[in-house]
Amino acid sequence: MSPHKDQEYFCDGIAEEIINGLTRLEGLRVVARTSAFAFKDKHEDIREIGSKLNVNTLLDGSVRKAGLRLRITVQLVNAADGYQLWSERYDRDMEDVFAIQDEISLAIVDTLKVRLLEGEKTRLLNRFTADLEAYNLCLKGRYFWNKRTEGGLKKAIEYFEQSITKDPNYAAAYTGLADCYLVLGSYNYLSPKETFPNAKAAAEKALKIDDRLAEAHTSLAGLRQYWDWDWEDAEREFKRATELNSGYATAHHWYAVFLVAMGRFDESVAEAERARTLDPLSLPLNSLMGWVLYEARQYDRSIEEYRKALEMDPSYVVVYSRLALAYTQIAEYEKAIANIQKGMDLSEGGTTEMMTALGYVYSMLGKKREAMRVLKELHETSRRRYVSPVEIAVVYAGLSQKDEAFKWLETAYQQRDHSLGNLKVEPQLDNLRSDRRFAELLKRMGLSN
Length: 449
Known about the structure:
mainly alpha; Serine Threonine Protein Phosphatase 5, Tetratricopeptide repeat; 22 helices; 7% strand; Rossmann fold; 3 strands
């Protein structure tokens, strides 16, 4: 409600800070940011929102910021009948923003009669910095991080670095920096060597400052998996993260991905479901279940989950190429190609993931010329930006050109490409498994057990 419409990052940040604090309490299930923010600036009935999120209580509020003055109004509402449980208005100076957040959090705990366990109050009220400018810069970083675009992530890095300059002991800013580099690498926006070492340094710094920060343990767990290929330590870090904050959806999400790589599919399904329970409207988490089931070779169930995700948002392009792969594994090639085309149309040309899926489908159909054309396009793209060598290997594997496939898998190994972590389970590489080179590569990666 600010007169200048450039304060969205600040308003979102306050809401996210309160969410993050409340997730640390064992007595509450708090829906994650993605699902909660799905209703921002909308006027849906309170009871309908409660039903969609499967929650009993909603915190609703507004922020008005003019210069250094703040007006924050909040109300706690019973989702079943829309009755107000508690409300407050805060007219304060900007320097009081930390105190306001603390008051809101404690009022929620008191109103809902949540019993704080030992140490929980300290974790609930931990703002990680007393520097208002560092805090403001960190909020801007998180705002752009949540966009998950290459440009947004690079912008977020700038803000997190500025925040750290203002307060070198701001653990949350280091965690944000780690997450930006981690996503830039795992989404193949940049190469592993350009991203993962920076992410690792930031996560380790965050934990050196505060070793009870679940978000930092989650980031480090992802790096142990993607960059170090230290599977045992990765699992220890994931477990530590969920012990510290069982309500942190991202920890369960990334742990589910790790369990897939280990071939522990039943456990992965359970973690994916926990993540989805915490963030029920998240498109990545709803499509995650489809991917877990695909890797588990339960293709019909995978297709069903992917369709559900597309019902939530037909423009969510990531799903189309993955749905195509599930159709390919049950020889529904026309449906596979149709889904890839739909994804390409929506994304104005498609991603390398879509190109790889198309090349693989063509190879399964015996359309060698078309598959080779896709490979040529992938090679040309790799001259302009990072392309995962595993994607190129997949198409060669589909064409049964095993020497070329292993050449590119070796390139992936040398580059420490994160996609190689799924070597043990990926169906697209099944026709390479009988080759001794495959077993040797699994052994080198510590995945042979």
